[in-house]
Amino acid sequence: MKSLVLLLCLAQLWGCQSAPHAMGLGFREVACDDPDVEQAALAAVDYLNQHLQNGFRHILNQVDKVKVWFRRPFGVVFELELDTLETTCHVLDPTPLANCSVRQLVEHAVEGDCDFHVLKQDGQFTVIHAQCHSNPDSAEDVRKVCPNCGLLTSFNDSSVVNTVNAALNAFNAQNNGSYFKLVEISRAQNTPPPVSTFVEFVVAATDCTAQGATDPAKCNLLAEKQYGFCKASLVKKLDDEELSVACRVFQKQPQPANPAPAVDQAAPPVPPANPPASLVVAVPPGPPAHRTHHDLRHAFSPVASVESASGEVVNLPKVVHSGPAGAADPAVRLCPGRVRYFRI
């Protein structure tokens, strides 16, 4: 009888120790530079870039925090805090992200802060929650590394608007093909004397010719969208101005036969297995007032819970005991992870 009671006690003890893992009641702490964490973080950044419709693509800079939650009945969820950096590739640029340069500190870099929940199941990583925002580096920090470098300025600044208009007119005047319209102002900087304005902007081809567009307002975008990305500068010299502009026109992008449904504002959709090679960007009415960059907060809507592909909702508690005290080696630095480029 005593043996039976002892056996039952041992069975209950073993069940209590294994229950959190089986029932998904706790999380596991892992290093921010763990290979699985890195794969989850890269999947999250890919998801971010697939959903951006304005501005520049971002690249992973650092994993700040991570928790790995056991998900019922299968898989695990990586709860990630990531830092990203803006690259020089526009979201419409087909250049692979690995070949995109990171925007440097002297160019007034922009950093993204993101929270992601990434489900790993059957070896596949799927983003089920995404929330980001971004901010430029401080003007003081830029001035420390480059006193005469330009600082980001608002898109509707008069010098910016004048430079973009002058550059677009110059580009169309030299163009023997389609007349191009402005889609968005992507970046703008003003520098101290000699006063200069540097801009980066997106244009799109229309059904008018550049040489025959007498009324640009009547020119419509092509059915097969064709975008271009331009860089221009306007330098003021005493009583004269020096304008330079260079544009790269991308290949035409076929209009999808069935437009994608509107994004559910309550939860971002799971990315398709084969995402489209490019995004279709609607022409905005004008440059956003007083913005100095395209904030990542407009890429997604905040999500209060995690929803799996099966519809199961998993609420993540903020404080859960992950294991016996002292289980982790204090000498092991779990997080934050390595900085891939530089800190802002």
TrEMBL record:
Signal peptide: 1-18
Locations listed in the record: Secreted
GO CC terms: blood microparticle; extracellular matrix; Golgi apparatus
UniProt entry tagged with the keyword Repeat: yes
Cited SMART domains: CY
Keywords of the record: Disulfide bond, Glycoprotein, Phosphoprotein, Repeat, Secreted, Signal
Taxonomic superkingdom: Eukaryota
Single GO biological process annotation from the record: ossification
Principal location listed in the UniProt entry: secreted
Domain called Cystatin fetuin-A-type: residue spans: 17-133, 144-255
Any Pfam family matching the protein: Cystatin
GO terms for MF: cysteine-type endopeptidase inhibitor activity
Stated name of the protein: Alpha-2-HS-glycoprotein
Organism from which the protein derives: Microtus ochrogaster (Prairie vole)
